[in-house]
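Throughout our pipeline, every protein is held as a single compact record rather than as scattered files. The record that follows is passed on verbatim for readers who wish to inspect the format:
___
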Amino acid sequence: MLLDAKGITRKLGHRNILSNVDISIHAGEVVSVFGANGAGKTTLIKILSTLLPPTSGEIWINGLEVKKHRDAVRRLVGVVLHEPLAYLDLSPYENLKFLGRIYNIRSMEERIHHLLSDVGLNQFAREPMKNFSRGMIQRFMIAKALLHDPPILFLDEPFSGLDISAVNLMINRIELERQRNKGILLTTHNLEFGYRVGSRFHFLVNADIESLGDKQQIRLEELTANYEQRLNS
């Protein structure tokens, strides 16, 4: 098991953003978590990727307890968030080279070139990112998450702000990384895309997570009807 999280709770004042969330990821699977805006999806991703501490709960990543091994764990995960975790005055190349030195990436120039080519940013490799569109920032975040070839990927609304070509790029990349035996957790409000790439499914509603089983157990039409019913209940 690549990730095992138990009892994850995050409070804001007296309100639960997340309440006793249990979730796991195995190698070679994509776990899709569906939820409306404000459901706590981004909070969940930030907690699992060590960017935000839970109020309570325990997380193990690749057998390491996050509380005790935070620095080591951060080398095992790649994360795509809405906000650009980058120096926007720098270019994609400069950002990736800076991170590559931190991670001691081998054949760094070749690695950066291939990643920027894969996400369609090679021709913009030397341009300041402050001039980038939302979709271009998202493409960069994909390259950044993959730079150190981590075994776990956390993707927060990965299809948001992307045109159809970039959506297809994202879908193909998720499948490629799954075939490479990565464990992937993504959050989305887009049931069609989340179902298309997913292996197992959850709802995140009213701070609680609900397991829906895997793709062999539920069709997209059933998942959609179930989701709409939960939102309206």
